[in-house]
Amino acid sequence: MRTGIFTAQKADTPIHNLSGLTKLLCFLILTGAVMFSYDLRVILCVMVFSFIVLRVSKITFAQIKLMVIYVVIFLAVNAVLTFIFSPAYGTEIYGTRHVLVKLFGRYDITSETLFFILTKFMKYSSVIPLGMIFLLTTDPSELASSLNAVGVHYKIAFAFALTLRYFPDIQRDYRDISQAQQARGLEMSKKAKLWDRFKRALSIILPLILSTLDRIETITNAMDLRGFGKYKKRTWYSRRKLSKGDMFALSVSIVILLTTIAVSIFINHGRFYNPFI
Amino acid sequence: MKKEPIIAFKEFSFQYFSQSEPTLHDINLEIFSGEKIMIAGPSGSGKSTLGHCLNGLIPFSYKGEIKGSLRIKEEETREQDIFKLSKTIGTVLQDADGQFVGLTVGEDIAFSMENDKVLQPEMKKRVAKVAKMVDMDRWLTSSPYELSGGQKQRTELAGVMIDNVDVLLFDEPLANLDPATGKQAIEIIHDIHEESDKTIIIIEHRLEDVMHRHIDRIIVMDEGRIIADLSPHELISSDILKNTGIREPLYVTALKYSGIKIQPHIEPGHITTLKIDDSMKEAVAKWYRSVRIERVNESDIQVLSVNGVSFSYDKGKEVLHDVDFNIAEGEMLSLVGRNGAGKSTIAKLMCGFEKEDKGKILYMGEDIADKSIKERAERIGYVMQNPNQMLSQPMIFDEVALGLKLRKVPQDEIDARVKKALTICGLDPFIKWPVSALSYGQKKRVTIAAILALDPKIIILDEPTAGQDYKHYTEIMEFLRRINETGVTVLMITHDMHLMLEYAPRSVVITDGNIISDAPASVVLTSPEIIDAANLRETSLYTLAQMVGIEDETAFVQCFIDYERQVKHK
Fold it and tell me: What is the rounded CA–CA span in Å between residue A33 and residue A259?
């Protein structure tokens, strides 16, 4: 059985064995830490930490390749846009101005702006592996129960989990339909014209939507018949009790968060680390 | 004092808001606590709608107008809600895959308790207990992908029983199961009925399979009405089955062919209760000797040869090992085996959807390894099980023309070929119609027409009769037989034993990626080892032959097949 992207894999690593709630909380705490701080040194530390965790959870590069590509493209575009809209932002923040390359008008490349963009780039890059770890090591039902535990309504949490849960099935449907359409003569090559490619996509997506709607009807009936939505709250069979490992992971995350705040307050006297003064 | 029925319909009728006419008319039915009832009827007879009325999907999810009364445990259903009803009537839906809500067996069984806010320790305890009852206690942490169809269904059953309901309602429990698993399902339902005081209602059209075990009463529905409410013996002895298009058990058909009058006193409802006396034995034996055995002439042109083919997905476990078989031109054959045996994989290799790791596939003696999916499709057509996954155009004409258009065939030739394909499929009156106006069976024929338009020499059909009642089964199969008679070779992937017996002179059986048998259906369905390996079940004809004292059961089954073909296609 092939599994697709965004599908949690079963494995026995310390990360997989944490409760979904712990992973969600750690993810949120560490994201908070990184979002709070603009200190490149702190961010790099968190980044190293998240890569170590990624390694520990035995996630292979092949699993996250597609996500990595999208993220890198997104971040690159973000960096360029930051420069275009506010080329002098770095100078405003750090209060100095070291021009590296003189372009036209206000578009000078300064060390300050470059440093700012680099910091921002690293900020996101250090959070994203944590998100991937959370998604890839938490099975959908634990995900739902942990979302519910942090206050998301269980219906929304469950809808989210079901989407992930049926993702492999829909991928399989997609492959089957696309194969049958290729047999009909649909050319899947990238040489086709844009309009043809659009029509081609349509002839796969239409049957896919119809068969997915069938699926949704069945599952809705099954859930109704077994009392889903009866009360404002529900319990979770698969929710794990917090173990020592969970406590440890949470403590580590909180320590990182506190350290980040401490560095800002006592060392940097602000959210930014300024190497230019 | 008269016992109060647990379920009572009184002059009940129901009309969906989306329909112009009522789906159920004048239903009067009483079901008593502890009874075991079968509700039978062809597709569209209203039997599923009746089930929906019982479990509360009607009127709480599917809206419509109710007239008359339906009382469950002496309370009018429409005044309750679906949650309250689900505590009395537990429903096992037909699509075990689609209704698997949890991510593991344990979680799925616990689903209804989660919604009732039961605390975790209590849930674990009750799940363990109920899982044991359906023999799933060793699978609590398995995900649905690791389970067979039967195991999924047992999980659903446990998930319903956990509520300690009074009534268990099974909506087409056999629809997605292979014959052996279906047989087990009926046995499990029977055991639960024996061990508890639960009322059992089974909605099915597969009469013979359900009557593998005792049934108190059979309610037959047709066109939204109850037309019979009889014991199995009385029903089998009547003309009702013939008139409603429900298939009678094969052993009953064989008895009738032998000129035996079926009457309630011989207890013909189940083959295990059937009382067969010497004169009946004599009649069957006489009929058996009188049947002319036909030999099919096989062409010696091999349209497709699979030579030593091995295959594995993503370098994982090998799913096909060195598979060898030939298909002669003009043949109609079935490829059978349990789920995951490799049947569909062979078809995918033939169509070029996947590429064999080893071996060759020859088309008319020529290696087609370098042919693309598109090129192969002009020679080997593939029809998916679910027509909704194939239909991509709003209009019938465009759907059938799609493959030709994509191959840049001139317009006038397209018109002619589409018309021809639709005529073969009996759909030419609908040439200007939208696809959405067609029934499921007609849609299936449109997909076949779309494949035939490309003029392939062989078509492969994945489960062509899955989920079809007898009438639609006959329609589709007769239609395939006609196509076969025009010279098209037909390969059917199936576990429908009736199909094998009636329409496929040859069956190739595959188990764990190996071909274990390549023989007539009569041989396959009378060999215990093959039946076991392929998750089939022995046909009741085999049992009948033994009861009558015919030593060569295979010959008896073959005799039945040949006789039937002679009667049907004269």
Answer: 9
